[in-house]
Design a protein that fits this description.
By secondary structure, the chain is an alpha/beta fold. The chain is built from eleven helices and 14 strands. The strands form three sheets. It has a six-stranded mixed sheet with strand order 6-7-8-3-9-10, with helices on both faces. A four-stranded antiparallel sheet has the order 2-1-4-5, with helices on one face. The structure holds adenosine-5'-diphosphate (ADP) and magnesium ion.
Length: 307
């Protein structure tokens, strides 16, 4: 069945709900072994994109292929190749932790000893062995997410699709999921497509990010390269502007943004802005930090910049 090694190819992908184009025509690919992150605010169309790729919702127009298989024509085959961790918790509350895995394994024709072996191995992997007999209702949010990750791995997928895998989790649970995703890539070469609205998560895990807003792709690239090209090295944030400071910044030619009484000044090479402020306004309140993907996003999707 595997005629094509490209994990994901989407062309002109559109999803309409009535008048709303939740996904308004996007093109992208995910290469073998790559980790690609879809970033964007709530309502950007990330989940809808994931649902089309994983054959959970019909495609309005355009095509999506998973390992060369057209999602519209071969939903069952596509689903066999995928591990999916949906955004919403859809664990079965009537079953224990382990039983949730065993039941899910059956969908893939995995039963008996083999199902038990995989379930126990995965419970170890996500550090839930001691909760094997616990009812789902007894699990914390972080435990449920870990169990959903384990469930997504039962069929030994070649492509793992994670829709907001760590939203709402505490730092420990988030880092455990990050570690597991990294290990799956390193040890088994699993290809990963994830969505997140945490820029930090995308920077940590992804080889490439795709920024979405309003059903469209705004830009894509390697996280560091995007930061470098869109913002630069440093951001200087200044507040409680002393007399003359805001005028100085506006006249400087530096790219900057003004919002809620705060100035965000982009420093392409680093040190230039900070040094100038130190020289001319040493008493000005400010902090200097590295530019992040979040700055890229606010620059592109957020408030208008005064160039
Ligand atoms: N089943 C649905 N029916 C109608 N509108 C929907 C449905 N699912 C999502 N939407 C709308 O599509 C848009 C994109 O949603 P979604 O893909 O969930 O975004 P994201 O995952 O980026 O937060 C939103 O405006 C949302 O309200
Ligand atoms: Mg979503």
């Amino acid at each position: 069945m595997l005629t094509n090694p490209v994990p994901v190819e989407a062309r002109g992908l559109i999803k309409r709900y009535g008048d709303l184009a939740a996904v308004a025509g996007i093109d992208f690919e995910v290469s073998l072994g790559e980790c690609v992150g879809f970033l964007g605010p709530n309502g950007a169309g990330k989940t809808t994109t994931v649902k089309m790729l994983t054959c959970f919702t019909p495609i309005t127009a355009g095509t999506a292929r998973v390992f060369g298989l057209d999602c519209a024509d071969h939903p069952r085959e596509v689903k066999r190749l995928l591990g999916i961790c949906p955004q919403e918790d859809n664990l079965d509350p009537d079953f224990s932790t382990r039983k949730n895995l065993l039941t899910y394994a059956r969908y893939f024709g995995i039963t008996g000893r083999e199902a038990a072996r995989r379930a126990d191995e995965l419970l170890d992997l996500v550090q839930l062995r001691d909760k094997a007999g616990a009812n789902i209702r007894e699990l914390s949010g972080g435990m449920k997410r870990r169990l959903m990750l384990a469930r997504a791995l039962l069929n030994e997928p070649r492509l793992l699709v994670l829709d907001e895998p760590t939203t709402g989790l505490d730092p420990q649970a988030r880092h455990l999921i990050w570690q597991r995703v990294r290990a799956l890539r390193a040890d088994q070469g699993v290809t990963v497509l994830l969505t997140t609205h945490y820029m930090e998560e995308a920077s940590q895990l992804c080889d490439r990010v795709i920024l979405m807003e309003g059903g469209r792709i705004l830009l894509e690239g390697h996280p560091d390269a995007l930061v470098e090209s869109e913002v630069g090295r440093e951001v200087v944030e200044a507040w409680e502007a002393v007399p003359g400071f805001a005028e100085f910044v506006r006249a400087s030619g530096w790219r900057h943004e003004e919002a809620d009484g705060r100035l965000y000044i982009h420093d392409v090479t680093g040190d230039v802005v900070a040094a100038a402020i130190q020289g001319q306004f040493p008493g000005q309140q400010r902090l200097i930090r590295r530019a992040t993907l979040e700055d890229v996003f606010l620059h592109r999707a957020g408030r208008a910049l005064k160039e």
